[in-house]
Amino acid sequence: MAADSPVHDASASLERVGQFFSASLGNAFEIPECEKLGTCRSVTEFEKLNRVGEGTYGIVYRARDTKTDEIVALKKMRMENEKDGIPISGLREINILLNLRHKNIVELKEVVVGTSLDSIFLVMNYCEQDLASLLDNMPQPFSEAQVKCIMLQVFRGLKYLHTNFIIHRDLKVSNLLMTDKGYVKIADFGLARKFGVPVKPMTPRVVTLWYRAPELLFGSKIQTIAIDIWASGCILGELLAHHPLLPGRSEIHQIDMIVEMFGTPNDKIWPGFSSLPALENFTLKKQPYNNLRHTFPWLSEAGLRLLNSIFVYHPDKRATAADCLESSYFKEKPHPCDPELMPTFPEHRNLKRRSDQHENKGKARSTNSYQDFGSAFSTQLPFVSILLKHWNMA
Ligand SMILES: Nc1ncnc2c1ncn2[C@@H]1O[C@H](COP(=O)(O)OP(=O)(O)O)[C@@H](O)[C@H]1O
Ligand SMILES: [Mg+2]
Prior knowledge:
Helix content: 25-40%
Number of strands: 12
Bound molecules: adenosine-5'-diphosphate, magnesium ion
Radius of gyration: 23 Å
Main location: cytoplasm
Subunit structure: Heterodimer with CCNQ, the interaction is required for kinase activity. Interacts with ETS2. Interacts with PRK2.
GO molecular function, one term: cyclin-dependent protein serine/threonine kinase activity
Keywords: ATP-binding, Cell projection, Cilium biogenesis/degradation, Cytoplasm, Cytoskeleton, Kinase, Nucleotide-binding, Phosphoprotein, Serine/threonine-protein kinase, Transferase
Strand content: 5-15%
GO biological process, one term: cell projection organization
C-alpha cells in the first residue's frame, strides 16, 4: 500500500472525529466542517408510551424524551425491502424532512438509533390526532368553517412543498396530522420525491387508490405536483361529504368512479389522453355529465368552482396550491375558523391501546420496554445526513 493512501482501521470507532468511512469508495474521508452535526442519540433515551400508528413504512410510537420530558412521536423505519441494509424509503424520508421547515409540515426533530444501522427512528413533534382516526371517531363531522381551516393549512403546506420541488405522492387523511392547537401538519414523506425540470419518469403506482389522480390510473409515467392537488381535492370532498369521495375497490373501479363523477375524458379536454398506456387495455364508458353539483347540492358556487378547478383531468390545467389558496371559497361565509378555535378531541389512538399500556405497566423502565425499539445501547453514528450524501440519495 502506498504510504500516502488512506488507511481505514475497521476496528476504530465510527465516531472518530471528522472522519467517515465510505462504503462506495472504500476509503476514509474528511467530513466537511459544516456537516459535523454531532452524533445520533440512542433510542433508549426515550420511554415508550404507546403505539399510535402503523403504516406501510414504519411503526409510530408516542414516547417521552427522558432528557427533556417532552412527548414526541418516534417512527421506526421498516427494514423490509431495504437495499444493502439501508431502508431506502426511510432515508429518502429523512433526507426530505431534514430540509423542510414549515408550520404545516410535520417537524423532524432528530434521528436516533437502536443497536446499529438496522434500527433507525425518526423523532418528530407529537401531533395529538391524525385526520383518519379523528374522522372515524368524531361524534359529529367538521363544520364547513372547520373544513376551510383544515384545507387552507393543507394548501399552505402543499404550496411550500411544491415551491421546494417536492411531490408528496401519498396525500390522504391518515397522513394529515392535527395538534391540539388546531394546526394541521402534512406527514409521511416515505413516498415523497424531489423533482427536477423537466420531470423525469417515476413509477405510476403511488398514492393510495381513493386519492389517486387519473393520469396515474391511466399509467402516465410523468408525475407532477398535480397529483397532490387531485388528492387534496379528494380530501376536501371527503371532509365536505363526511365520507370518502371516490372509494374505489380496484384500479378499474376507481377509474369508473372518477368517470361517473366527472364525465368521460377525451383528447379535446386532455390532449394526449387517448395514448396513455392503460387505455390500450379497455374502453371507457361514455358519461357526458359532471356530477359534482349533484353530489354537493348545498355547496356555494365558489366552493363548487374550487372543486372543479382541482378535479381537472388535464394535469397541466389543474389548479395549483397557490390558486386554491386564492379561491373565493375561503373568503366567503362561513369564514374559515381560526386554528386556535378548533375543538380538541379525545386521543382515540391512545385510548384504543389502553390494554397495551396496562401490559407495559411496571416494566416501563426495564429493558423489556425497548423490545420494539431494538435492543439497548447504540453504536453512535455520525449524523445521518452524512450517510444520505454518501449513498447518493438525491
Ligand atoms: N408526528 C406524529 N405525531 C403523532 N402521530 C403520528 C406522527 N407521525 C405519524 N403518526 C401516526 O402514525 C401513523 C403512521 O405514520 P406515517 O408517517 O403515515 O407512516 P406510514 O408510512 O407507515 O404510513 C399516522 O397515520 C399517524 O396516525
Ligand atoms: Mg402514512
